[in-house]
Each structure stands twice: as structure tokens, then as C-alpha cells.
Amino acid sequence: PVVPEKTMLDNGVKELLEFAVADFTEQRVPRKHKFFHPDNFVLLLNWVAAYPTLSDYFVNKLDGVPLLLQALKHSKEDYSRVLAMRCFLLYALQQKVDGDIERRLLANNGFSTVVDCYRQSSGDPTDTRSLTSILSSICRHYPDAAAQEFKSSKIADVVLASLNITRYKGVPQHLRVIEDLRRLPAASLKKAGVDVDKALYDSDALPVLMGIMEVFPEYYESIHLITKLLSELQPKTTPFEMLEYKSLIVFSKLYVRYREDLTFQTDGTRTVMAAMAEAIIEDKECSKYLDESVAGYQLATSVPTMKAMIEEEEMFKKDGLVIVQGLTERKSPEGLATQ
Q1: What is the pLDDT of residues 184-196, one digit of tens each?
Q2: Interatomic CA distance for residues 208 and 174, integer angstroms
């Protein structure tokens, strides 16, 4: 914040906050005019949210979480959605008792409200930065409650729809939410009757994830995460379906791009990608569509590239080759590496 908190307190901002709450809740008497309509109330809260003392006073003394949710519910401006989520995130970052803000949100039906804001997001990373962090925090602090809210909030549809329209730097936010949902305890998911992977698959995760890999090939962090996720969703699909979503074409382009990259060779991305490609190439139903006389140019040219990647992966596994500082070395029987 530009203004120190002491200056804010010395100049009556705490009293202004009390006045705003009384005005917003229509408890200010006598009153001729209402100053703090929902959007104005959210603007004020966003202004003071970065100050720990004022935030603590609002949340704990004035029971602020349901008030902010109420203001958000009745707001008319789009910016209120983003600012309200920013307030909740700042409250969570400053809270003295870990998980308190998340508990208050759940107690006031806040999970569905956060997901509704997620549903209205524009794809701009600044639009979803706060709310994705809040959802991840709820999943980690209260997994049972998150599992119970999974179906009713339709969060699988929402997160994939947001991922589908996100801009470049927003991809990791949505992938983090997906990962936190998939990491919910098995007992919690079973009790709630939720299969996260099936829900993601039913919400068209495959075409969305494959599309992200194709559109943002330069974003290796996301490529690594998505490849791992695709391999774990593979039991829900078939090799032919993977082929339909241009997986071989996308994989071949990524392989050509990252073939010499040390990270690609050693972090498991190539291993997983080769396994998925091999399952497609060896599938009987897929084989007839991979023939050069039938396949289109991109698909026909991707097959030799994928076979080269599979052979390279098998060679590394068979010969015990490792990559050390960019050099290919062979492990000796004694476990020592020799060039």
C-alpha cells in the first residue's frame, strides 16, 4: 500500500469502515441517503483489504465475510467480482488462524459464489488469479467440504471452460485447481460419490488440454503438467479418441521442438508422451487410419517422428543411458558412468 497503515488509522479509516458497514446494512440512523451501495462497498473494502489491522477488524469484529458475499451478490459492476475475490485472498493471506477465512466462506455458501465468479471470468489471468488461489486453499484445508461441493458447483465444467479461453500466463492457475481437485482424499471423494477424472473427461478435458498444448507449445511448464495429466486420464479414453484429437500431430511437433532439451529428456515428459504415442500406433483400430494412403499430410508425417521418439526412449531404457550436463553417458555395470 502507498499509505502506511498507521496513517490510515490516524485519519479515521477504521471509523469510515464502521460507517460503511452500518450504511450498507441499513442500520445507520438517522439516514437520508445511502452512500455505500454494493459496488461502492466493495470498492471501499478493496481499498482497505491490504491493511492487516483493518482487515482483521472487518472480518472478526464486524463479521465481514458474509457482508462481502452479500455485496457481491447484489453488485452490478463486473469489477466487483474481481475486487471481491482479491479481498478474500488478502484476508486469507493475512489471517491469524490458518484456514479461518476458508471456513467462513464455506459456512456462508461461499464456495458456490467463488465458482460462479470463476464461471464469469474473461480468460484474463488477472481476473482469475485470486479466485483460483482461494479454491485451491479450500481444497487443501477442507477437502471433505470441497468434495461435497464438487457436483453441485459443476466446478469441473467451469475450470475447463476457463482453461479453454485463458490467455498465455493464466494456464498454470487452472491446472493448479485441477491438480488440487484430483488430490482430494479418496475417502472424501468416495463419500461424496465423486470421480474427478471421469468428471474431467465428461467435461471434454481431452480436446481442451490438447488444444492448450498445440496453441502454447513454448510454455514448457504447462506442457509437462498437461502431458502428465493426459497420461493419468488415459484409462478413461481410448487410443482412437486420442488420435481424433490430433495427439500424434501435437506430440510430434513438441518432440521436434524439445528433442535436444535436457529437461524434456529427464523429467519424464518424453517417457509419458512416448507411451501414449505407442499405444495409439499399435492399436488395431488406429492403424488403418495411419496408413499413408489414408492419413492426411500432418498425420502421415507425424507417425515416423513418433516412432523415432519411441525408439529413442527404448534405447535410453535398454542401454541405461543418462544425460549429465548435456552429455550422453552410459552406465557401466559398476554403476559408474563412462562416455
Answers
A1: 999 999 999 999 9
A2: 12
